[in-house]
Design goal:
With about 325 residues, this protein is mainly α. Helices cover about 75% and strands about 0% of the residues. It folds into two domains: about 160 residues, no CATH class; about 160 residues, Four Helix Bundle (Hemerythrin (Met), subunit A) (Up-down Bundle). A two-stranded parallel sheet has the order 1-2.
Length: about 325
């Protein structure tokens, strides 16, 4: 796989993570309606970014940059297809080496999916402004951001050298296969992110949080502890020494611990915020860190799951992988 493609995919994933932070800053500062225009801000492409408009329009600028980078990534994935098209138009023949360097079709299609998701994300962002921040649309906007982030992370994984060189080499161990535990952990973390987004957008900083959503979010945290903890400890116990699996498992556990502490701190600062004259930096900083760490937990769980499916398989599949293919 082309090293430049992997680096560009990493760039897009990093920019998307920064976009999630920018979005969390908008919500924490209650800046979502700093301007009623979209896609312009106060009728301008580059307005005076003062007050809450700094956070809202800054978020839009970051989102635009991520969108342009995603378009660039898709063009990078399809560059050989574009090259073939141009050479055919000119009546030339495509070199075999060029054809061999082309990413697989499923990877190129994943790039198109990422582009579709980022377009939908932008439209949802505009809809939140036009409809005056309805809870359902705002929560969907935040949730889709997490899905887009993990799509870009997956693209970075699939284009990496370690992924290309990895081959099935481990048979499933234990009574609970990792190929079942990992998807359960991914779904559990994702549902918790939906709950978190709904809770975060359910009340502004000067109003108390709904008790039922708080309890649901706490219950979700316990479910994530069980699901992700089971996967991580199973990996560390069954495949000790295999850094391809143990590294993301260790990172996931560390991030989970940090996320639990951040969640508790975010709740304490948020409970006190209705008594404050405005959103204060401790509440904003801790809440944004909680959102960012949640995105990293989700991304790391995705990476661990993908890598598990890459090298851990059933005994039958392992035998097929080890059998020389007839030419």
């Amino acid at each position: 796989m082309n090293k430049g493609l992997n680096r560009f995919a990493l760039l897009v994933a990093s920019a998307t993570f920064f976009l999630i932070i920018a979005g969390a800053l908008v919500t924490s500062h209650d800046a979502g309606l700093a301007t009623s225009d979209w896609p312009l801000s106060n009728g301008q492409v580059f307005p005076k970014m003062v007050g809450n408009l700094f956070w809202e329009h800054g978020h839009r600028l970051v989102a635009t940059t991520v969108g342009l980078l995603t378009i660039g990534l898709v063009l990078y994935l399809y560059r050989w297809s574009l090259w073939r098209f141009l050479t055919r138009v000119r009546g030339m023949h495509v070199q075999t080496s060029v054809q061999q360097g082309e990413p697989p079709l499923w990877l190129r299609r994943l790039g198109l999916i990422a582009l579709g998701v980022v377009v939908a994300q932008g439209l949802l962002g505009g809809l939140t402004v036009k409809l005056m921040l309805p809870l359902v649309v705002s929560a969907a906007h935040a949730t889709l951001a997490q899905l887009f982030f993990c799509t870009t992370v997956s693209l970075a994984v699939f284009t990496s050298r370690t992924w290309v060189e990895a081959r099935p080499k481990f048979e499933e161990k234990g009574s609970l296969p990792l190929r079942y535990l990992c998807p359960v952990a991914v779904v559990t973390v994702f549902l918790q992110l939906i709950l978190g987004a709904t809770l975060r957008h359910s009340a502004t900083w000067d109003k108390p949080l709904p008790t039922d959503l708080v309890l649901a979010h706490i219950g979700g945290a316990l479910a994530v502890m069980i699901a992700l903890g089971s996967v991580a400890f199973s990996v560390l116990r069954r495949y000790k020494g295999e850094s391809f699996l143990t590294t993301p498992a260790t990172i996931a556990l560390a991030l989970l611990v940090v996320q639990l502490f951040l969640g508790f701190a975010a709740y304490l600062t948020r409970v006190a915020s209705p008594n404050d004259p405005q959103p204060l930096n401790p509440m904003v900083g801790i809440t944004v860190a909680h959102v960012a760490c949640g995105a990293l937990v989700f991304a790391t769980t995705i990476v661990l799951t993908l890598r598990t499916f890459r090298i851990v398989c059933t005994s039958h599949s392992l035998e097929l992988a080890a059998t020389p293919q007839e030419s």
